[in-house]
Amino acid sequence: MAELFVVRHAQASFGAADYDVLSDLGHQQSEALGRALKTQGVQPEVFVIGAQRRHRETLEGILKGMGRAANPIIHEGLNEFDFKGLLDARYRGKEAPENIHTERKSHFRTLRETVLEWQRDEITDPPERFADFAARVEDARRALVGHIGKPVLAVSSGGAISQMLAATLQTPADQQIVLQLQMKNCAVNRFIFTERSFFLHGFNETPHITAENSESMLTYS
Question: Which residue stretches of the chain have pLDDT < 70?
Fold first, then answer.
């Protein structure tokens, strides 16, 4: 029996021209998480990331905090869905809510409604169908647990991780976005796996956050 640690990326650059870059705080979060995991005795033998820059930069910080080096495997199934493209598709030819790409409250309220429509296949010509998104996340999960007997640490994004969680718990589809909107930056989600089984063992953990640093270190986007 081995453990799989699936980490959401550290704080990215919400509202910036390029979201896919960690903020200064994001770099601090990822290094702090690496130190916390080392203190817990976590010793992954396999490292896997999505193909997005924020995944790579987060793992680099984790490894720095752990005092380790690694050449991660890249699996595109761990990539986030294109939330900007999805919002644009929903409002193509319509008036979109103001500042949905730059103002957090408006963005996440609208994203929740949009994802529910996406799941029901009600959005015309989205960047990716929800069924295809779910399938590639499942393909990534199968690849991760293919490392039988080896502890694995993967870095992904909130949408992909929450889909993995929802599928593991066999929840209704709409719980995916509920889980996603709770996911903290650098949160750790733990699974136990064998050749025949796969269980959730921990959700949305932040061992690098304490009462003393939570005001500055706890973020969601």
Answer: 14-18
